[in-house]
Amino acid sequence: MSDYIARPDHGLAWVTGASSGIGRALALRLVRDGYAVVATARDHDKLVALQHEAQGQTRGTASGRIIVLDGDVTDPRDMERILSAIEYDHGQLCLVVLNAGVYLPVHGEDLQRDDFEKTFAVNLHGVVNCLLPAIRHMKANGKGGQVALVSSVTGYAGLPTSAAYGATKAALINMAESLKFDLDKIGIRIQIINPGFVETPATAQNAFAMPALISPAEAADRIADGLTSKAFEITFPKRFTYALKLLRLLPYPAYFWLINRATGWKKRPLQTHGPGVDKSDKGQSED
């Protein structure tokens, strides 16, 4: 088993989806902890604003900094480019948090192929596009490393509107569990991060009450603490996420009844969008 725990003196941290939400808050927290953080997202201007904010928080101290390397996680060549830039211009990676994601609500009565393809491209393929070069880099250095995949409690079991999003998050949980067996043997520690509801533009779209909602800053603190622990799973707030763990153990009739009751979903009207309706503004990316 790999007991490796990254520290700022070991090397750089890399956070994807760093321009907003959890990723942005986590990048700032890691900077305060002393890391030089490579921040990646598609929006260059937002990353530069993050860099300036980090400088304001650490001015006059020996703390960390933000290195802006923007790119699109759905493009494997772009992620290879970023890893090359890290290796040749900045140094060694010791910590990777793959956070970039998008949430597009899916309604069974109004299925759109594009919702699934965009979600899979960012949330699943985007992780693979970053994971492969990151693991190769850590193997080549021979000094170990730490990788965390940001999943979600929606990966535990099916929830309303999460047919695409939840499917990708369930895949990430399984991916991390499966890779752990081999990565442990080469000194690379992998973790899975399963937050509950966090107040972001993505969750603002949810058409149901979100219990135990927390801020991105609080989520970042929970994640940062979990990264320094030996836990495989980082999940919070536990009073909510552990309840969902128990729910998934119920027989299906009881599970569906309870979720319908908790969300009021059975009483909600059907979606009325027909073919050809423009839904291009639906969904918010976490990067």
From TrEMBL:
GO MF terms, alphabetically ordered: oxidoreductase activity
| Coiled-coil ranges per UniProt | none
The cellular component terms of Gene Ontology attached to this UniProt record, alphabetical and capped at eight, are:
membrane
Residue span(s) of domain Ketoreductase:
11-201
Q: Which keywords fit this entry according to its UniProt record?
A: Oxidoreductase
Q: Which domain of life is it from?
A: Bacteria
Q: Is Oxidoreductase tagged as a keyword?
A: yes
Q: Which Pfam families match?
A: adh_short
Stated family: Belongs to the short-chain dehydrogenases/reductases (SDR) family.
The name this protein carries in UniProt is: Oxidoreductase
Annotated source species = Pararhizobium antarcticum
